[in-house]
Amino acid sequence: MIHRLETNKLRNVAKFFAHLMGTDVLPWHCLAYIRLTEEDTTTSSRIFIKILFQELADQLGVHMLNVRLNDPTMQEYFVSIFPKDNPKNLRFAINFFTTIGLGGITESLREHSKPRLEMQQQKSISELGASTYDDNSSSSVGSSDSDIADSDSQRETDNETNNNTKREKEKMRVLAVSA
Predict the structure, then answer these.
(1) 133-150 confidence digits (pLDDT tens)
(2) Angle at 117 between CA 93 and CA 125, to 5 degrees
């Protein structure tokens, strides 16, 4: 239904829900109906969620909003907004709230993603080390025209692999900085 509303009406509905939730007229477990993933949201629903949470932050303050969202008795209702089921969904939620200026409420998600991030970085480093070892240990003694051609094509392949590894390391660095 949200996707059918014009932007101004969407904004008003989000502010209305934020007011009702901020004053505890509407129970917070209604957030269980919001599923914040790239696949499950549209532009309109993202705008609605953005305005809803920004208004809640304005009414309650970011600290109090964070306290409410981290209430242990309510966690089962917030699983769909702060998904931990899939790294892609986890990153999407973190990036969404950070982009709208509420990155502070994603601390629990960031803590949850740290072990996975560290494991991915270790895996990349170990793969890089194995790749470097393989490059150094595969040297030839004799050289013929075919050996030189093979060596040139191997060097190009190695350069592509190193470039891919550099890109992966840069992605990991960006993820680590954003986390």
Answers:
(1) 555 554 444 444 545 445
(2) 150
